[in-house]
Amino acid sequence: MEDLEVKMEGSEPQQTVRTPEPGLQDVFDRIKTQFPTCKVKKIMQTDEDIGKVSQATPVIAGRSLEFFIALLVKRSSEVARQLGCKRISGEVMKETILTDEKFDFLRENVCGEAADHGQEDQEQDSPQED
């Protein structure tokens, strides 16, 4: 993603705005579904540390989820094409999560065994001190 600097007038600090990759902008523009705001708010409030939630917060969180899912599906479709598949299966998504650095936070939860095996292989390949 490209970083664009936005200069604010006055004494406010400069902010960096991230713009989506060129191929993803049209995907984001085609999103027609929305996560129900009341459900997002309920999910957020299941955490005991979260008290009151402003009106805009669930809307922003829902939109962020839409963008995240769109990115995951886009990357999974690219992996499926590379593998010669016509459908995005669980295995294709698993491969996407294992290979794409943007989804590395999902490796432990979604691909627990595969992430553990990758670490074991690295440990076996490294020389051990006796």
Automatic annotation (TrEMBL):
Sequence segments annotated as region (Disordered): 1-22
Chief location category: nucleus
Gene3D superfamilies per record: Histone, subunit A
Nucleus in keyword set: yes
Cell compartment(s), UniProt: Nucleus
Entry keyword Nucleus: yes
Gene Ontology terms for molecular function: chromatin binding; core promoter sequence-specific DNA binding; protein heterodimerization activity; RNA polymerase II general transcription initiation factor activity; TBP-class protein binding; transcription coactivator activity; transcription corepressor activity
Keywords: Nucleus
GO process annotations (BP): cellular response to heat; negative regulation of RNA polymerase II transcription preinitiation complex assembly; positive regulation of transcription by RNA polymerase II; RNA polymerase II preinitiation complex assembly
Superkingdom of origin: Eukaryota
Pfam families named in the record: CBFD_NFYB_HMF
Boundaries of every Transcription factor CBF/NF-Y/archaeal histone domain copy: 34-94
Any one GO CC term of the record: negative cofactor 2 complex
Bias-annotated ranges (Basic and acidic residues): 1-10
Protein name: Transcription factor CBF/NF-Y/archaeal histone domain-containing protein
Highest classification ranks of the organism: Eukaryota, Fungi, Dikarya, Ascomycota, Saccharomycotina
Gene: TDEL0A01430
